[in-house]
Amino acid sequence: MHETPKTHERARVLTGDRPTGPLHLGHYVGSLKNRVRLQEDYEVFIIVADVQALTTHLKESGHIKEATKEVCLDYLAVGVDPNATTIFVQSQVPEIAELTVFFSMLVKLSFLRHNPTIKTEALEKGLGEDLTYGFFGYPISQAADITFLKARLVPVGEDQIPHIEQTREIVRKFNRLYGPVLVEPKALVGDVPRLIGLDGKLKMSKSYNNAIFLKDPPELVRRKVFQAVTDPARIHPTDPGHPDICTVFAYHKVFNEHEVPEIEGSCKAGKLRCVDCKANLSSTLNRFLEPIRAKRNAFAEQDGLIWDILGEGTRRARAIGSQTLSQVKEAMGLSYFPKQSPQRVP
Ligand code: ATP
Ligand code: MG
């Protein structure tokens, strides 16, 4: 059968992180692992969402550039290949901001108000009366991050599902009103939809001070594991434990799967001391993190390379952004001047 080269085009994937600090184990199992896996078969784009970082880090904007580099180092450390994946910086692609403005007309406030992730985050971050328009509306800006690329798949943690739903809704509305320009994306949740925090909180997060970072040195990993919350009802080492409510056991389930039946059995029987269980977990995590740390250190010495990767990725993202925005404006009837030849995607 006759095949055109078009049939080999790979579908696009978009995902990303806020440069508000280094990445942690939650990012790895929730999203990073999938990104690395997908780069062979998809055209993967990763956005460093520095504008979104401002929603909670307005006064610390001076640290965002350094954090952007850190996040990029984490990507490379876990195996994101800059030759296969495009990494770019949100604030340097103005087309995203433009699209956000158009999208903001399509979203009802009543819908935004009911977004469960926004509610939880505003509460956890104690925003209260300080809640800004930018924070409240960040799912709209995220919809623009995804759709300017026409991404089909978005690897994310479970907390992001309401935002992807919102994006789908926006795309449907736009296409209904103006014609089929945008692509409806799907969320792809990682093996562990939501890794809990060291403090037992529902989510490990940069903001909650309850995370093990991918770059943490071995001794710090050990210290953090030893401070993790276990079964509070267990006072003596021989008391029967309740692994189902133990943070340390939750991590064993994710990072030490093959030992889980044994750990569970001996904990329940009061035969495994929490200190031994924690020592085992910290060694397991350190074994997992060692190659990541080594790769990260190697890249950390090449400052110029990191900025080249981000610069090149951003240039590519902009070229696509300018094409999509031309189509969007054309469809909306907001195209005024003689057509300029569109920028070619390299
Ligand atoms: P911040 O506190 O700055 O918001 P964060 O730790 O919540 O940081 P984000 O940058 O908001 O991290 O999240 C980036 C991606 O990582 C999202 O797809 C999110 O769902 C995923 N992710 C973050 N934390 C976890 C977690 N604990 N478990 C699973 N996925 C997670
Ligand atoms: Mg977050």
Would you kindly provide a written description of the structure presented here, covering whatever features stand out?
With about 350 residues, the chain is mainly alpha-helical. The chain folds into two domains: about 10-195 and about 305-330, Rossmann fold (3-Layer(aba) Sandwich); about 220-295, Orthogonal Bundle (Tyrosyl-Transfer RNA Synthetase). About 50% of the residues lie in helices and about 5% in strands. The chain has a three-stranded parallel beta sheet with strand order 1-2-3. It has a two-stranded parallel sheet with strand order 4-5. Helix 4 (about 95-105) packs parallel to helix 14 (about 305-330), helix 8 (about 140-145) crosses helix 9 (about 160-180) and helix 11 (about 245-255) packs across helix 13. The longest helix has 30 residues, at about 305-330. The model is unreliable at about 1-5 (pLDDT under 50). Adenosine-5'-triphosphate binds near residues 17, 26, 159 and 205.
Question: How much helix, percentage-wise, in residues?
Answer: 40-55%
User: What can be said about the biggest beta sheet?
Assistant: 3 strands, parallel
Radius of gyration: 22 Å
Following the backbone from N to C, one meets helices and strands in this order, namely EHEHHEHHHHHEHEHHHHH
CATH class of the largest domain: Alpha Beta
**Superfamily (CATH H level) name of the largest domain:** HUPs
* Lateral arrangement of strands in the main beta sheet: 1-2-3
Question: What is the topological layout?
Answer:
Elements: E1 12-17, H1 25-38, E2 43-48, H2 50-53, H3 64-78, E3 85-89, H4 94-104, H5 109-113, H6 116-124, H7 133-136, H8 138-147, E4 153-156, H9 161-178, E5 186-189, H10 218-227, H11 247-255, H12 260-268, H13 274-300, H14 303-332
Parallel strand pairs: 1-2, 2-3, 4-5
Helix pairs in contact: 3-13, 4-8, 4-14, 8-9, 10-13, 11-13
This protein binds adenosine-5'-triphosphate and magnesium ion.
